[in-house]
């Protein structure tokens, strides 16, 4: 059964807002109001939680996360941007690898196993979507999640 994406994003964001009251989540999903997916809602939720959890963990100094959506012909893009510590260019190719964590020293106070993005990538690949990350160290990170739309 098809699943409405925008409410699922908003519900997930509400939970993150409740857990991180000092953070500002700025979101706009109006343009994907009617977008439906054919996916397990728990999987969509898990992907979003992994990305948002990272955005929070790695932007403790700036505390602002922007979420917006872009509607394409057969796909929807959800873009999650933080303004935190970013990822060095040399590490970017490896962030989807299992157990990979950028610079243990920098991360030593931030809990994590390095599995989150590997799991998210797998869930996205299973539905023939795309998950890409661009980042500038000390500036922030932009995650683009692309999922196929259910066409009526
Ligand atoms: P967990 O398995 O609990 O998610 P994790 O955050 O270490 O732990 P991943 O989500 O797989 O693991 O991320 C891999 C690594 O990529 C992280 O350790 C971190 O160094 C880097 N990273 C991921 N997202 C961001 C982000 N938004 N900003 C900065 N670095 C990030």
TrEMBL record:
GO terms for molecular function: ATP binding; phosphorelay sensor kinase activity. Residues 1-151 form the Histidine kinase domain. The keyword Magnesium does not apply. GO terms for cellular component: plasma membrane. Its main location: membrane. Keywords: ATP-binding, Cell membrane, Kinase, Membrane, Nucleotide-binding, Phosphoprotein, Transferase, Transmembrane, Transmembrane helix, Two-component regulatory system. It is found in: Cell membrane. This is Signal transduction histidine-protein kinase ArlS. The chain holds residues 319 to 470 of 470 of the full protein.
């Amino acid at each position: 059964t098809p699943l409405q994406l925008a409410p699922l994003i908003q519900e997930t964001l509400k939970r993150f807002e409740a857990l991180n009251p000092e953070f500002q989540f700025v979101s706009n999903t109006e343009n994907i109001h009617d977008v439906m997916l054919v996916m397990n809602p728990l999987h969509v939720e898990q992907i979003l939680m992994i990305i948002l959890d990272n955005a929070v963990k790695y932007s403790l100094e700036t505390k602002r996360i922007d979420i917006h959506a872009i509607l394409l012909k057969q796909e929807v893009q959800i873009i999650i941007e933080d303004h935190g510590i970013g990822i060095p260019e040399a590490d970017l190719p490896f962030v989807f690898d299992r157990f990979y964590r950028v610079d243990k020293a920098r991360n030593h106070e931030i809990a994590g196993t390095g599995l989150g993005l590997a799991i998210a990538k797998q869930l996205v690949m299973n539905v023939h979507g795309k998950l890409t990350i661009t980042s500038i160290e000390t500036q922030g990170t932009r995650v683009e999640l692309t999922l196929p739309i259910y066409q009526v």
